[in-house]
Specification:
By secondary structure, the protein is mostly beta strands. The chain folds into 5 domains: 115 residues, no CATH class; 102 residues, no CATH class; 123 residues, Tick-borne Encephalitis virus Glycoprotein, domain 1 (Sandwich); 113 residues, Sandwich (Immunoglobulin-like); 101 residues, Sandwich (Immunoglobulin-like), CATH 2.60.40. The chain contains 5 helices and 50 strands. Strands 12, 35, 38, 39, 40 and 41 form a 6-stranded mixed beta sheet that branches.
């Protein structure tokens, strides 16, 4: 009977301890980095009323008979699951996401915590603000941060370029003058009478109309009489109608004085008397036209379609203009003395210009005059005749500028280059297209900043698809900055051949720019942060980042074996295993998260359920005590 009292007592004590565990969990539900605990029960020794026996030949085996003597707390284990991370914005509020512990020390002893509420003390040492313990780094020493020193400058060693150079060529271009129309060679329109001499016109007056090149009719009147072919030809030539008649074997032949596709000839009966056209066999003929084709270099000037009257030896063609250097050109080409053909005229013109080239294009029949160098010039040429009547209509072949001389296409990128003292100097890089399609790179700078010692960089070419084909053989730029005792050299990174990184050459506008350079000036510390590896990084005004310290992250084989010493601190125990110190995200260590605090992993709802279970268990054991007391009272009352 007494055993039941002590059994109930063990249950009361055990559930009381369980309530203590639950209460501690609930009390620390808002404690940063707190790891909740759970109580694990086990029974006590049992009183054996009968031992078990094995089966025999005449009787079966029997089980042991035992009465339990109560319960006890067998284990209180921690739940090491990750707590929620809460952002605080403080750079030295740190949390572990995953395995690992921050290491702090009070001098002789090391402790471990998941709560990185750290900060700097007056000496610049990183400490745990809750306890004042020093935070330990990878060298197993305290972390002392240098927050006052400047970041030293660094001279520029490389300049990187990116963007596009235009594929559309607008320069460099040489100025070109071209005749407005090509020189054409042609045949005249002609007709031949179908009847031979003599021509009987004794009956009276005979007439016919001659229409040349679509103009007004010109009337020839003859008779009465008998005429030979030469007589009719002479009478036609005397009209001055722009047509020439000849005696061809006793027949009358007419052909226009001009040649070319614009010439035409038609013969009609006259307005008075008998039909002269019928007498000479020219009646009923259709409209006849001349032909035209592109002249050749060997074509005589008199055969040109725009020739109005044949040149004779000594006739003059005036040539005037301006060479590219401003030299005035004035000369006269004498037909039959300086030449007679188109090539003769062009060769004569070419000899007049020291800085330009005259040529004849047999495909178009045009005369061209091209400057020998690129860029804008005042190049010009005029072909005229000194007096009327003009032999050739040169106004139809006036030279005009068909290609304006322009300088090379350029694209400009500029960037600040740093000298060893950290002083920035603006340097400009002009990319200039050459006549062969390649690009030169011309570095330059203000004389007040220094002097570029390197020559122009040449030989940058591109493939048809816009990628770099060949890079210049030398991409180093040497400069002498004012205030420095020695020259400085840096390299240009334009990209890789065959690739589309760096500079390209596509259609469209230029987008070239100097993307970056690796130099920098002196920097002051502007902010501090901690990365996932636990590196304490200083961010400086010159854009540089410096590692000021490295947090140690400790891991253990058995985190549950750590000994809890309060203040969210743990110590090694004989069952935790030795610590392994590493950086964040290496080995078993998780990542360090800056600007956050890990929260408690207590699940309040779960604890409340366990609280109800503990309350009911305690209540049941209390009822057992009451019941046992009543039974004992009855037993006493038996006497």
């Amino acid at each position: 009977m007494v055993n039941s009292l002590f059994t109930a007592l063990s249950g009361l004590k055990t559930h009381q301890d369980w309530l203590g565990v639950i209460g501690n969990n609930l009390a620390n539900s808002n404690t940063p980095g707190f790891k909740s605990s759970r109580a694990v029960f086990s029974d006590l020794f049992s009183q054996t009323l009968r031992f078990g026996s094995q089966p025999g030949t005449t009787a079966g085996g029997r089980n042991p008979v035992q009465v339990g003597l109560g319960t006890q707390i067998a284990d209180v284990s921690r739940n090491m699951n990750q707590g929620a991370l809460t952002a605080t914005g403080r750079p030295f509020d740190l949390a572990m996401n995953g395995n690992g512990w921050f290491v702090v020390s009070n001098g002789p002893d090391s402790f471990y915590t998941r709560v990185g509420t750290f900060g700097l003390d007056g000496s610049g040492t990183l400490v745990d603000q809750r306890t004042g313990f020093q935070v330990i780094g990878m060298n197993n020493q305290r972390i002392r941060l240098d927050t006052s020193s400047a970041f030293p400058p660094s001279a520029t060693m490389q300049v990187d370029f990116a963007g596009n150079l235009p594929a559309d060529v607008t320069g460099p271009l040489a100025q070109v003058q071209t005749t407005a129309s090509g020189l054409m060679e042609g045949t005249s329109a002609q007709v031949l009478g179908g009847l031979a001499e003599p021509f009987d016109m004794t009956a009276g007056t005979f007439s016919m109309d001659i229409i040349v090149n679509g103009g007004a009719p010109v009337t020839l009147t003859m008779g009465p009489g008998t005429y030979q072919a030469i007589d009719v030809a002479n009478a036609i030539n005397a009209l001055g109608a722009g047509v020439t008649a000849t005696d061809v074997g006793g027949q009358v032949q007419l052909q226009t004085d001009k040649t070319g596709a614009d010439t035409s000839l038609r013969i009609l009966s006259g307005p008075t008397g008998f039909d002269l056209a019928a007498v000479v066999g020219l009646d009923g003929l259709p409209l006849t036209t001349g032909t035209e084709f592109v002249a050749t270099g060997t074509s005589d000037l008199n055969l040109l379609s725009t020739n109005l009257n044949d040149y004779v030896s000594g006739d003059v063609i005036d040539l005037s203009g301006v060479d590219t250097d401003g030299t005035q050109i004035s000369a006269s080409f004498r037909y039959g003395i300086d030449g007679t053909t188109v090539n003769d005229l062009v060769t004569y013109v070419d000899g007049l210009y020291a800085n330009a080239t005259a040529a004849f294009d047999p495909a178009t029949g045009q005369i061209t005059l091209t400057a020998n160098q690129t860029g804008p010039t005042g190049l010009s040429l005029a072909i005229t005749e000194p007096s009327t009547p003009f032999k050739t209509n040169w106004a139809q072949h006036a030279l005009t500028t068909t290609t304006v001389g322009t300088g090379p296409d350029t694209a400009v990128g500029s960037i600040e280059v740093y000298d060893p003292a950290g002083t920035a100097h603006p340097v400009t890089f002009t990319f200039e297209r050459q006549a062969d399609g390649s690009w030169n790179v011309i570095p330059s700078m203000d004389p007040a900043e220094g002097t570029v010692l390197s020559p122009t960089i040449t030989g940058l070419t591109f493939n048809d698809n816009g990628s770099i084909a060949t890079l210049p053989g030398v991409l180093d730029v040497s400069v002498m900055f004012n205030g420095q005792s020695a020259s400085q050299q840096f390299t240009l990174d334009l990209g890789m051949p065959g690739m589309f990184q760096g500079i390209t050459q596509f259609g469209g506008q230029s987008t070239l720019f100097a993307e970056s350079q690796d130099g920098f000036g002196v920097g002051e510390l502007t902010s501090i942060g901690v990365n996932a590896a636990g590196d304490i990084q200083g961010f400086y005004s010159n854009g540089q980042v410096n590692v000021l310290g490295e947090l140690a992250v400790a891991t253990f084989t058995n985190d549950n074996g750590l000994f809890q010493v309060g203040d969210n601190l743990f110590a090694e125990s004989s069952n935790s295993g030795s610590r392994a110190v590493t950086k964040g995200q290496l080995g078993r260590a998780g990542e360090v998260v800056g600007g956050t605090i890990e929260g408690s992993n207590v699940e309040i709802a779960e604890e409340f359920v366990r609280l109800i279970e503990a309350q009911r268990g305690f209540q049941a054991n209390a009822r057992l005590v009451t019941t046992t007391d009543e039974v004992l009272a009855e037993l006493v009352n038996l006497i």
